[in-house]
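Appendix B. Chain record.
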Amino acid sequence: MDLIIKNGKIVDGTGNPWYKADIGIENGKIVKIGHINKNQAEKPSIDANGLIISPGFIDIHSHADATNFINPRQESTIRQGITTHIAGNCGYGLAPINPERKDLVVKYLGDIVSSSDLLQIEWKTFNEYLNKVEQFGIASNMKFLVGHGVIRIAAMGFENRAPNESELDIMKNHVREAMESGALGLSTGLLYPPGIFAKTDEIIALCNVVADFNGYYFSHIRSYGGQLMKSIKEAIKIGEKSGTRVQISHISVFGKPFWGSSDRVLQLLEKARAKGIEVNTDLHPYDSVMTDLMILLPPWAYEGGKVKTLERLRTPQMREKIKQEQINGPENRDDWPEWAPVDLIGWDNILVTLLKSEKYRHYEGKSIKEISESENTDVFNALYDLLIEEQVEANMIITHLRGEEDIINFMKSPLAAFETDATPTAPYGILSQGKPHPRGYGAYPKVLGEYVREKNVLSLEAAIRKCSSLPAQMTGIWDRGILREKFWADIVIFNPDTIIDKATYANPHQYPKGIDYVIINGVIVINKGKHTEKLPGMVLRHQ
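Structure tokens predicted for this chain:
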């Protein structure tokens, strides 16, 4: 055997109680679980006395698409126990690429990757992109969705209209090529441009192609606030009409007036499942979210891409029109499903991050209210001026947006897996820029430390199931997520008494405590808390 893990408590990912046994690993896979003599290993064994041995965590909602080409070590996510990423969420992605609109894609990715301008995009098709990821090397395993946003950009840019027949055929062909290449399915970001411009029938047409390949539909739905139920019903309808499985991404109830709605949401999911529609969901354990600052603007302001948005922000009449809609909402609420008066969110709860300009970089982590006071202007002009200076590529963290009661209720649901909704970063180099959401460093340790050990919301076994075998089942990964002989050796070894997140909003670039070892495909990547710089990850192509 290449490696033996001894003396630990095994929590195998199924939800069953822990038990004591040794684990033997050879050629990347688990070959024996039971009593193993230490001298059977060709290399020194790991003594896991006092530690938990669990399956590697599968991040079902990751944005790890681009940073692999900047730093493939995936520092912030590996160190919290993530051994597999499901990337390409919220409609984002790096393929397919229409060469004539490549610059639009790079700017589009600027919403989630602060260093997107450093990417050297040398591919066109989804298959070429996956091949490039494999050639470059990655620390963790990755499985990819194809993003509706990048497909729509390839076919029709940022047009605010339905695609014509020719454009829809182009989009279908891109989906088909991606699915043939091993994509898991299609993702949408129906809150973001250009996804916000798409109607339900367009998504159903694309998901019909996905269904031909036994694929999945992942959706950042149109609203998590006032139109939450309507938005979930749309996702369920898409699954019902197309035959795809449905994943409601990062389930939430946004806004204090709507807190307490989680029971109704879960009842709606259960009702759909009773009809035979396979619908599931996921969440991270924070009351805040991180997203694109631009979504505070009405959707018509996005039309044509960021260059056009900048033109509107520079025009006094357009600024006033934007301001009035931010205050009063659009005439037709369907034109802006997630609208809520910004005063309801609270200008002091909107923290800006991932800023690039010299003028505004020192405001990272500050609220729009604080910036307006420092700049001696009102909050609306402070927002518009910042967006102009940042070329509409700034992000925000909205604090106190989700209620603890709903978070816990979703956590307890058997239909919900855990995720990060994050991009891998690092406390050094280019990826240390800005103040990203703490979930990128601490989501899983926060679950295991705060919600399992301190608050007793979940048992350790139940929580690990939601980090491993449940997301594996939700994504068709049948040889990972459980500690079982013949399965791939993706393993996390941690101290249940000390594991906790350390990242904060003020200082997010901090690794968590308590995770001693992370093993991926039988290779030790985190050894006694240190990164070995090995890149054993695989691209997992959907069958």
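Further analysis of this model is presented in Appendix C.
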